[in-house]
Amino acid sequence: MRFDSLSRAVALVLVSSGLGACVAPAPQVVQSGGGSYGGRLMLGSDMLAANNFDILRGKRVGLITNHTSYTSRGEMTRVMMKRALGGNLTTLFAPEHGIFGTETAGKSVKDRRDPVTGLKVYSLHGDYRKPQPWMLTNVDVLVFDVQDIGCRSYTYISTMAVSMEAAAESGKMFVVLDRPNPLGGHRVEGPPLTSGWKSFVGQVPVPYVHGLTVGELAMMISGQGWISRVPQVVVVKMQGWNRNMIWDDTGLPWHRTSPNIPNSHSPAYYVATGILGSAANADVGIPWSGQPFAYAGASGANAQAMYAYCQRLNAPGVSFAPYSRDGFGGVKLSINPRGGADLTALDVLMTAELNRLSGGKVIGRLRGDELNLFHKVYGGTALYSTLAKGGNPMNLIAGWQRSNASFRSARQRYLLYP
User: Computed over its alpha carbons, how large is the radius of gyration of the chain?
Assistant: First the structure.
């Protein structure tokens, strides 16, 4: 099916609509200890230090960390905490991509010794995804300080959720050192997580783009009872961040969160093509382009036809250029992260059109584990089923609006920033 006649409706849908059950211990929020910081944005790790590490004093600490865990002054969080806590920083844990962020997506990572601190690093993307009780025997409080990108399928928030559950099961406190959402705090878009499709690329039932900081998300996970057991949660709040800020407004350097998220605009591109990237015979610019997720192409697709289609979408803040290489055709995207386009809707529409232009190769050749991953990334089978039947993806996009409105309402009580 062609969707040319839907260009007016597409233009409306592509404007992002983001607006500002169990009994659990009430999460605690650590506010500023006072003082002036000269207008500089203070991360949760900075505020922990400004409060003299009070919540950790006398406790044995396990830190979930990686190469993104820096203070605003550029010091590794684990180095700062080792200096302040000495032997009470006992254990490190690392999410997908390892503690140095160099391991490829999906790769199983082994435990290791951290050459920076000398501490044991338990991999949470190897034999285990969840901290095991024996990993926590020398830990009283589990601290999370990892930079997320604001998208459900990015696994760092899955690591946080299962680690919260592990902390509760072992009677440990869970502390989140809060960090900015690089997409800002208003953008809420994309499909909900369908029942039965919970996975490590979709661990909590939030929209594909949720508009929360990791601290806010931890509070919502706790308050909504999205894990089987809920720990005592403490969020060390940032100072100087607000919901209108994308990463470029923070004044902070960007540390490549994983090999294919190299710069501060990469999260927007990840949202715009990540679902397509989990399909077959698709090209999102990895590994050849040096600009991961900045391309949307498919084997056998006509680049000029795809370019003409994308132009008709009138996606605010997104421009396109045709490209062809090695039998693949499609478009190169240029995204203004301050633009109003619904990037998840764009992802779905481009996936549908590339599937049509390729003669069905994008989804038609998905089998077994590949098909399962496609469902997991999207959050259910609806996209595959719609495209397989020649249906209209606009109906899917329209269907998100009610669930996303409900989510925005439910998240209000957990928002920490104006």
Answer: 21
Phi and psi, residue 193, nearest 5°: -85, 115
Q: Using CA atoms, how far apart are residues 88 and 82, in angstroms rounded to an integer?
A: 8
- The alpha helices in 246-367, defined as continuous H runs, are 266-277, 303-313, 343-357, 361-364
Distance from C-alpha of 92 to C-alpha of 111, rounded to nearest angstrom? 10
Distance CA 237, CA 43 (A): 7
Mean pLDDT of the chain: 91
- What is the rounded average pLDDT of the residues 120-144? 96
DSSP structural state of residue 304: H
pLDDT tens digits, residue range 333-379?
A: 999 999 999 999 999 999 999 999 999 999 998 999 999 999 999 99
Q: What is the CA angle 26-31-34, rounded to 5?
A: 155
Delimit the domains of the chain by residue range.
4-15+261-404, 28-245+410-414
CATH code reported for the domain at 28-245+410-414: 3.40.50.12170
Mean of pLDDT values over 103-113: 81
Give domain 4-15+261-404's CATH number out of 3.90.1150.140, 3.40.1190.10, 3.40.50.720, 3.10.340.11: 3.90.1150.140
User: What tokens were used for 26?
Assistant: 């009430």
- Give, in order, the Cα–Cα distances in Å from 252 to each of 48, 137, 291, 298, 363: 18, 36, 21, 36, 39
Reference 94, options 70, 129, 136, 60; nearest CA is: 129
The mean-pLDDT minimum among 10-14, 83-87, 111-115, 155-159 falls in 10-14
Residue ranges in 68-194 assigned as alpha helix (H): 77-85, 156-169
